[in-house]
């Protein structure tokens, strides 16, 4: 005991010289206090920081850590002073000029930053960065843990060919091998960019890091890895660390994208600094996450406000640093007795208010408000353009081929409206002079005529630029920002093309009709069918007054079941097929006022859209063209001279400007767009020329069918459904362009399915590629790479799935 007191006296003397004066307080919170008052401390007494007291059941020991740097936790906030583009600098004495430090970072709610982050050492310090290079938002906050390289519970892992496969990299370290009960946290440390959130997975006696989005793990990237036991709190110098595991349940989600921790180390502890990493337990979470203090509990949330699904799991480590660690310390009574009346010691009062002692804590941030889209609201009455938009704007929107019905998103705050094209039709290409319609004669025996494959590409006739223009006009009409999304990308089933009796009248069997839906909003729907005769009659029907008309029915994903039908026509000689006559300004209109089409046309109206007040307002002017005559292909359009003067005035162009454009920049910018309305005139010689152009074929290929044999694919994968996609140049009857065949739905094992037709040139072998989409029962969608194949029998079973998805079935 004398030795202890001697050491205490020596340490106390040194402490007196090293520390500023502090106040003496009567008791330590939560320690039994005697009724006898604390004895007055002599002026020569020494002050001891309770952080230096190690609690023992029998005696007091004083510990000084003199070896490795004490780990530090702190928070940083992105600002103009420390942020450049996608990078925010960490300015801390521990990390500056310390490239060997091991840094961990977790996003903390300040503002939303829906991007995966990493850390890296640059110049003289460490930084946090967005992996996808998107700008770091001002106000973004990060919890930072900095460890010395010699710290015993952390290491750096580098992905190599020997330890990485697909989206998974295996850890091989004594801290983790054979220790499935530990809590493992990982932060990406730049070696290569990896935009996917990552998680931890315990498999075959080792821990692994995996990409949540199942994209390949880059070789050469690094991870900082922290390993702690989950059953004990650990002291790290002035830090107190607690590790635990958390599972998302419906009962611990205050909001769909937020889950609350219920732990003694974090409850009512706003000063805790929390770090998280997802842990695989049957659920992927592909969304970047952060932590948030809410209702006296710490939470983890998806930064993009996507739903945080039940049964998603997290590894969590919380730290209490510096004096904050003492706010909840309960000293053993023997320790208290040892120092309570000792005139050589006084107890310093922490420099902050202890919990529940009248101190104030910062108010929690407001609940995150989601502006994320939730899909179209199909219930109720859609927004009707004809009823809610002015006549002028309605006229422009009809030229953009926008369907009259708009469906608002289920989340009104997203400002998203879903649209469909008003009409699908054939398309004429101005450069190649070709139509999106072809007839292909198959090879046949001597003296016989083979079957015919007819392919028709039906285009939505709306471009990305026109969608942007529609957003501007609708925003002005609705009085708020409007964003348009195509419903063709949100479908439950393949659209149904119904041409009624149009094809059956030409002896086309329904089972021979195939439909291919594009993955691109602006690409065509491809309809093909096989017929044995009456081809000339079919072509004739496409050039008469009605053409071949029908509709396309879409079944979008939404809050209710709903089918929406739009018009579809196959008519060669109509304005919809040839497309819009539109110009950027009046000079272009006057200089290119000639008929580019295969048929004579007559001009009807010119419509000018002008922007005003710097683009905040729009005006529409229409000029009706009187006494215009029919203009043959290649000829200058026939227009009344008086009408030309009106057009020049409406487009800010005088005829003398055709030589030298003297308009000022303001006048040029006033014109948003110009459209010329026209009708296609009847022309029998033109019909005959088009028939000769379309009626072409070759006899150099044979049609061969792909057979798909489904083995145990569903039983092995435990998937809800599997979709098979096949593409090949041999899918094009003319062998010119790669075609994607109709998607095949696999909903049962041990089935034989048709994979579609290939047009294989004589002397050649079948050649195609296939891709698998595996829809799991929890909604997860797995997508394979394209696989090259050359056999007409395609087997889909366990072997094929394992080759594409190594972790499937585990």
State the helix count.
14
Please mark out the parts with pLDDT under 50 across 5 or more consecutive residues, or reply none. Answer: 4-68, 322-367, 445-449
Main beta-sheet annotation = 8 strands, mixed
What is the share of helical residues? Answer: 10-25%
Mean pLDDT: 79
Number of strands: 51
Strands in their spatial order, largest beta sheet = 12-13-16-15-21-24-19-18
User: What structural class do helix, strand and pairing data support?
Assistant: alpha+beta
What does this structure look like?
By secondary structure, the protein is α+β, with helices and mostly antiparallel strands. It is 14% helix and 33% strand. The strands form 13 sheets. The protein has an eight-stranded mixed β-sheet, with no helix packed on it. β18 and β19 form a beta hairpin. The longest helix is centred in the N-terminal third of the chain and has 17 residues. The protein is globular, with a radius of gyration of 36 Å. The protein starts with a helix and ends in a 6-residue tail after the last helix.
Topology of helices and strands:
Blueprint: H1 2-18, E1 46-48, E2 53-54, E3 61-62, E4 72-77, E5 83-84, E6 87-89, E7 102-108, E8 117-122, E9 125-130, E10 141-147, E11 154-158, E12 164-165, E13 168-170, E14 183-189, E15 198-203, E16 206-211, E17 222-228, E18 234-236, E19 239-247, E20 258-260, E21 273-279, E22 289-294, E23 297-302, E24 313-320, H2 333-340, E25 345-347, E26 383-384, H3 385-388, H4 391-399, E27 405-408, E28 416-419, E29 423-425, E30 437-441, E31 452-458, H5 464-478, E32 483-486, E33 496-498, H6 501-504, E34 514-516, E35 525-531, H7 535-541, E36 548-554, E37 564-570, H8 575-578, E38 581-583, H9 586-591, E39 601-612, E40 617-624, E41 630-631, H10 641-650, H11 665-670, E42 671-680, H12 684-694, E43 701-710, H13 713-717, E44 719-728, E45 739-740, E46 744-746, E47 751-761, E48 768-776, E49 781-783, E50 787-789, E51 793-796, H14 798-804
Parallel strand pairs: 1-25, 15-21, 28-32, 29-37, 43-51
Antiparallel strand pairs: 2-3, 4-10, 5-6, 6-9, 7-10, 8-9, 11-17, 12-13, 13-16, 14-17, 15-16, 18-19, 19-24, 20-23, 21-24, 22-23, 26-27, 27-28, 30-31, 31-35, 33-36, 34-35, 36-37, 38-42, 39-40, 39-41, 39-42, 43-47, 44-45, 44-46, 44-48, 48-49, 48-50
């Amino acid at each position: 005991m004398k030795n202890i007191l001697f050491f205490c006296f020596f340490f106390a003397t040194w402490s007196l010289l090293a520390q500023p004066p502090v106040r003496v307080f009567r008791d330590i919170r939560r320690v039994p206090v005697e009724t006898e008052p604390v004895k007055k401390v002599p002026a020569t007494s020494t002050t001891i920081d309770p952080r230096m007291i190690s609690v023992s059941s029998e005696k007091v020991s004083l510990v000084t850590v003199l070896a490795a740097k004490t780990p530090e936790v702190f928070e940083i906030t992105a600002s103009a002073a420390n942020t450049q583009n996608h990078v925010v600098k960490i300015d801390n004495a521990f990390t500056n000029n310390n490239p060997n430090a091991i840094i961990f970072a977790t996003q903390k709610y300040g503002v939303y930053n829906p991007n995966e982050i990493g850390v890296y050492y640059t110049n003289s310090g460490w930084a946090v960065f967005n992996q996808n290079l998107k700008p770091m938002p001002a106000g973004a906050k990060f919890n930072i843990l900095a460890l010395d390289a010699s710290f015993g519970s952390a290491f750096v892992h580098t992905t190599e060919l020997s330890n990485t496969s697909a989206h998974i990299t295996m850890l091989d370290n004594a801290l983790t091998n054979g220790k499935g009960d530990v809590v493992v946290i990982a932060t990406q440390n730049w070696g290569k960019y990896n935009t996917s959130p990552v998680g931890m997975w315990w498999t075959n006696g080792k821990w692994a890091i995996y990409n949540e989005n199942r994209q390949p793990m880059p070789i050469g990237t690094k991870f900082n890895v922290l390993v702690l036991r989950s059953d004990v709190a650990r002291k790290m110098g002035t830090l107190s660390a607690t590790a635990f595991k958390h599972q998302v349940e419906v009962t611990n989600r205050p909001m769909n994208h937020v889950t609350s921790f219920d732990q003694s180390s974090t409850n009512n502890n706003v000063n805790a600094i929390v770090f998280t990493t997802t842990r695989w337990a049957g659920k992927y979470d592909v969304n970047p996450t952060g932590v948030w203090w809410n209702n006296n509990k710490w939470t983890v949330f998806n930064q993009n406000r996507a739903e945080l699904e039940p049964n998603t799991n997290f590894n969590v480590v919380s730290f209490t640093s510096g004096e904050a660690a003492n706010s909840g310390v309960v000293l053993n009574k023997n320790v208290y007795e040892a120092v309570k009346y000792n005139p050589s010691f006084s107890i310093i009062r922490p420099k902050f208010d202890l919990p529940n002692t009248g101190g104030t804590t910062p108010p929690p941030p407001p609940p995150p408000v989601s502006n994320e889209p939730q899909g179209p609201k199909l219930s109720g009455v859609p927004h009707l353009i004809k009823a809610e938009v002015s006549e002028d704007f309605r006229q422009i929107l009809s030229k953009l081929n926008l369907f009259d019905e708009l469906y608002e998103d289920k989340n009104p705050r997203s400002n998203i409206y879903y649209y469909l094209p008003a009409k699908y039709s054939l398309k004429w290409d101005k450069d190649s002079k070709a139509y999106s319609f072809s007839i292909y004669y198959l090879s046949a025996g001597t003296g016989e005529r083979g079957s015919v494959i007819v392919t028709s590409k039906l285009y939505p006739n709306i471009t990305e630029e026109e969608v942007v223009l529609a957003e501007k006009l609708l925003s002005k009409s609705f009085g708020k920002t409007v964003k348009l999304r195509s419903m063709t990308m949100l479908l439950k089933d393949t659209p149904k093309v119904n041409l009624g009796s149009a094809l059956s009248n030409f002896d086309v069997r329904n089972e021979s009709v195939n439909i291919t839906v594009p993955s691109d909003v602006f690409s065509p729907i491809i309809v093909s069918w096989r017929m044995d005769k009456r081809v000339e009659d079919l072509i004739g029907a496409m050039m008469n007054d009605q053409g071949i008309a029908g509709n396309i029915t879409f079944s979008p994903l939404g809050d209710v079941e709903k089918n929406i039908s739009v018009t579809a026509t196959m008519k060669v000689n109509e304005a919809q097929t040839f497309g819009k006559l539109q110009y950027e300004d009046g000079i272009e209109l006057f200089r290119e006022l000639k008929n580019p089409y295969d048929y004579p046309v007559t001009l009807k109206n010119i419509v000018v859209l002008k922007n005003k007040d710097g683009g905040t307002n729009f005006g529409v002017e229409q000029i009706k063209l009187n006494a215009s005559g029919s203009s043959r292909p290649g000829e200058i359009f026939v227009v009344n001279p008086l009408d030309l003067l009106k057009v020049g005035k409406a487009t800010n162009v005088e005829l003398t400007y055709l030589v030298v454009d003297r308009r000022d920049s303001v006048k040029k910018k006033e014109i948003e767009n110009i459209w010329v309305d026209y009708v296609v005139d009847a022309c029998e010689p033109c019909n005959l020329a088009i028939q000769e152009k379309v009626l072409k074929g070759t006899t150099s290929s044979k049609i061969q069918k792909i057979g798909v044999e489904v083995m145990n694919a569903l039983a092995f994968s435990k998937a809800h459904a599997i979709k098979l996609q096949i593409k090949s140049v041999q899918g094009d009857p003319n062998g010119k362009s790669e075609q994607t065949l109709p998607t095949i739905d696999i909903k049962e094992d041990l089935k034989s399915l048709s994979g579609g037709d290939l047009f294989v040139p004589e002397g050649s072998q079948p050649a195609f590629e296939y891709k698998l989409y595996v829809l799991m029962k929890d909604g997860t969608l797995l997508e394979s790479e394209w696989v090259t194949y050359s056999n007409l029998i395609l087997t889909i079973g366990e072997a094929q799935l394992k080759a594409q998805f190594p972790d499937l079935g585990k």
